[in-house]
Design brief:
Elements (H helix, E strand, L loop, with lengths): L3 H25 L5 H13 L3 H6 L3 H4 L6 H15 L9 E14 L2 E12 L3 H9 L6 E12 L2 E5 L9
Antiparallel strand pairs: 1-2, 2-3, 3-4
Length: 166
């Protein structure tokens, strides 16, 4: 049988372990790689998250002559949804099976090929039920993104997806 002293020691060790594990997870999630930045931007692009898209674009695009390129993209997506008789949320897509392949050009620039499937994401229940009963049509995507390192963070540059064509 364990004495009260042993139980206290074991409990303290467990608490310390949990705290250290939390700290490690917190710091490991802050690592920014070209692949992580590409996935984060791609998720934001297909979920129509303008704030995240802008945060992950390089200054050349976000502050260039076409200053509101993200706003233009979101407006265009909303117009497409309205033309089909839906709200803008209908155009959101969830990603599945995302894979990345990094081709570093140098320490401050990289090309990342990102592939996967996207499916309508009107709400999480719709996506779950649709997958469960094979009701959702998936669409493959395959894009090569150019990323640059600005202020210590990888950001998407160049012509990501159709963003610059709208």
């Amino acid at each position: 049988m364990l004495s009260a002293k042993n139980v206290m020691i074991i409990g303290s060790v467990i608490v310390i372990f949990v705290i250290l594990q939390s700290i490690l997870i917190l710091f490991s999630s802050k690592v920014n790689s070209p692949a992580e930045a590409a996935v984060e931007f791609t998720k934001a692009y297909f979920m129509l998250d303008g704030t995240s898209m802008t945060e992950n674009l390089c200054s050349e695009i976000s502050e260039g002559e076409e200053a509101d390129i993200v706003g233009g993209y979101l407006f265009h997506a909303a117009e497409q949804a309205r033309a089909m008789g839906f709200s803008p949320g209908y155009m959101k897509n969830q990603l599945s099976g995302v894979q990345t392949e990094i081709n570093l050009m140098d320490q401050n620039s990289a090309k990342v090929r990102i592939t996967g499937d996207r499916l309508r994401s009107i709400n999480p229940v719709f996506a779950f039920v649709g997958r469960l009963f094979f009701l959702i049509e998936t669409h493959k995507f395959d894009e090569t993104l150019t990323l640059v390192k600005e202020d210590g963070k990888w950001r998407v540059c160049g012509k990501p997806f159709s963003l610059s064509e709208i």
